[in-house]
Amino acid sequence: MPQYKYVLEEKDVPTQWYNVLADMKTPPPPYRHPATLELLGPDDLAPVFPMALIEQEVSQERWIDIPDEVQDVLKMWRPTPLYRAARWEKALDTPAKIYYKWEGVSPPGSHKPNTAVAQCYYAKEEGLEGFATETGAGQWGSALCFATQLFGLKCKVFMVTISYHQKPYRRIAMETWGGNVVPSPSSETKAGRDILEKDPETTGSLGIAISEAIEYAVTHDGWKYSLGSVVNFVLLHQTVEGLEARKQMEMAGDYPDIIIGCAGGGSNAAGLIYPFLKDKLDGTKPDLRAIFVESTACPSMTKGIYAYDWGDTAKTGPVCMMHTVGHSFIPAPVHAGGLRYHGMAPSICALLDQGIVEARAYHQNAVFEAAESFARAEGFIVAPETAHAVRAVYDEALACKESGEPKVILFNNSGHGHFDLAAYDAYHRKELPDYELDQVAIDRALAELPKVPA
Amino acid sequence: MPQYKYVLEEKDVPTQWYNVLADMKTPPPPYRHPATLELLGPDDLAPVFPMALIEQEVSQERWIDIPDEVQDVLKMWRPTPLYRAARWEKALDTPAKIYYKWEGVSPPGSHKPNTAVAQCYYAKEEGLEGFATETGAGQWGSALCFATQLFGLKCKVFMVTISYHQKPYRRIAMETWGGNVVPSPSSETKAGRDILEKDPETTGSLGIAISEAIEYAVTHDGWKYSLGSVVNFVLLHQTVEGLEARKQMEMAGDYPDIIIGCAGGGSNAAGLIYPFLKDKLDGTKPDLRAIFVESTACPSMTKGIYAYDWGDTAKTGPVCMMHTVGHSFIPAPVHAGGLRYHGMAPSICALLDQGIVEARAYHQNAVFEAAESFARAEGFIVAPETAHAVRAVYDEALACKESGEPKVILFNNSGHGHFDLAAYDAYHRKELPDYELDQVAIDRALAELPKVPA
User: Fold this and answer.
1) Looking at this predicted complex, what is its ipTM?
2) Which of A71, A77, B362, B417 has the fewest C-beta atoms under 10 angstroms from its C-beta?
3) In terms of domains, do B416 and B364 share one?
4) Are residues A259 and A366 in the same domain?
5) Binning pLDDT at 50, 70 and 90, where does residue A306 land?
6) Which of A173, A178, A372 sits opposite B176 (nearest CB)?
7) Does A267 reside within a domain?
8) Would you call A189 helix, strand, or coil by DSSP?
9) pTM
10) At B240, is the secondary structure helix, strand, or coil?
11) Are residues B326 and B314 in the same domain?
12) Closest residue by Cα to residue B97 from B80, B79, B82
């Protein structure tokens, strides 16, 4: 058997983040104001985000220093291990060499604290009292409650109602870390009350929860809003994954032919992919393939259009150029709650539009079939979101078996599924729906896109 | 901030287990036959356990080689990290230096696979088809399903009924790894049917589930029984923890004054403690303190007696000299299901009887108070069993604060509590009962101890 794990020491935690915008020939178009649709300035974002993060959002610097205090907290669990999936390769009888970055070792169990910690550091520096945020399946909310607690900040989490009731353990974990969690839509915001009035039985959505969190932040002194994906600074913070993985792939003596990650807003995939994609953008590795994997229930990249859209349902957040199925689209209740976002990170969308990266979508049953195969060989039971990446790896590995090519595949094992086992149970019982895309709903949502001036 | 993690490489996975029996001046008295109460020979155990394990059970060799194949599987997650709990020390304002071995990084999330993997290797070598076992909260069953799957063996798990229904996620995890799980008592064994006939509403117990698993094993060709704690060979396999921790404490430049672990059957605590206790047994470290922590709901070491007793309720397993509250005692339904065993590992009991190690018991609320304090500082939400060790560390750290002594405390963070969050919820809601010891029930159980010939 080959070596399984490539481990780094605490001194190997990256000291700088990598900013892909510096290497893109055509960066994503600028954000627009949610009401006027005019170009957005830093001051427009100041009531929502800490100023240091707004500066990072528009930075063109290739390398941005990671503050010592952030590095110090990251060292609680980083560097994370890089695994060679030797047993899974054997089970799949593939000549492919499969590696994965294992982010499930963080206390909240996913990659999400990589940015939560950084955001809390800047919030503390700015003298804030607390952060409001949204969460779907709960991975992001867990990460932010964990991080706010470490920095002595308060945390208010609007959790999509269906997940709040289906995943009580996530809520309890957030409370154990000191967070205050309410189901969304809630009666605590105007956005929530408006939705509840129209539809008291609604199961909620990430778009609604974002609207509530933004409203809560801007109407409470000393509070701002924290976002767990989509925007540039979040993807930036996640590049610690790929920067570590580069060193670890060197230890393994390999370089990936294909890198794969699941994508809801896109941050875990981009965090692993961007530091390698640098080599494609500068021409060193022109053949490198990068695949972002989404759910057929919310196929922004594979079925949506590339257009300006609001980031949230109540149209209070910035308007971004992105692949979208429309801000008012409410996706089917797939278990991968983190993939139920109507849009996608603008930087990923620009790269996709330019043909530099690829996108793919899967149905639930295909996803859990691959995840169970992975669990039985490698042991780890991955999150439903992550399982989408696992399916893409599974297909690429079987393609290698077919072609006989010993390709090197790297993927982001972005989190464990310990709070999502009902999904595996439904798969075992053959009760997992493969949601068909509702084109009528998408068309209706797309008709509501903003009319942005040329 | 000091260094947080002391990590080893795969080549540092131990190549030999440490057998404490070789260094005990007075080893535990031999096992007795469950029916005749005469001394037990290896042949008596042959229908129950693989022969290689029976040989390990009675071995007096100090060092026992770990087969290459077992090392290879252990490398899937071992060596596990040793953490310095620097943030918790600060939160407790203690001069104590607190270290913990973090076993939650294994795919099943606890220390249990350390022995599950070894047992499956020997079972495969012997040509067996499968293992039957019991599980309480599910940590042991998870570990065995994970390990049997890797070795191509089948797994039948009798899961204590109350946990089967309270912890469905554990059951689903076992099924995801290919195991077959039934609530115990079940109708699949005579032992189970007898109990169900007397009390159809019983919530079950570990003692009953052990009886069912043994019966299933001895009545099915090619099947044997796998036990997750208590006996010598299990504690032997767990010494990889302490052997790694010795190297890691050297890296940290410290040696523990106090080592602490929670104890149901005693294997996680012994696994960490025994390789250090060697130094006390040979006189090098006479002042080393080792504390085994149990639940007040099942206080075998602190309220039971030191006597011969059956290991299981149906009196089909070996009779051992141990601290016991009686094989027929059914403990209150504390969340720490793994601490609801009526006895304790015979080697630990002999050391306790000889005054070489210490024992302590805690109520649930004290335990979760400390676990939440730990989670808020260190991030990790530990299992209810492990939380008992955390409470003992908390008390020792506060004693150091009182006395001003900078003692070095090492404990076994034996597993995560991701499947046990209902316990934290009950704690938050102040709905967690502190079960008072039912002395009448213990006295009744102790009256049923076997009358072993002198």
Assistant:
1) 0.96
2) A71
3) yes
4) yes
5) very high
6) A372
7) yes
8) coil
9) 0.96
10) helix
11) yes
12) B82
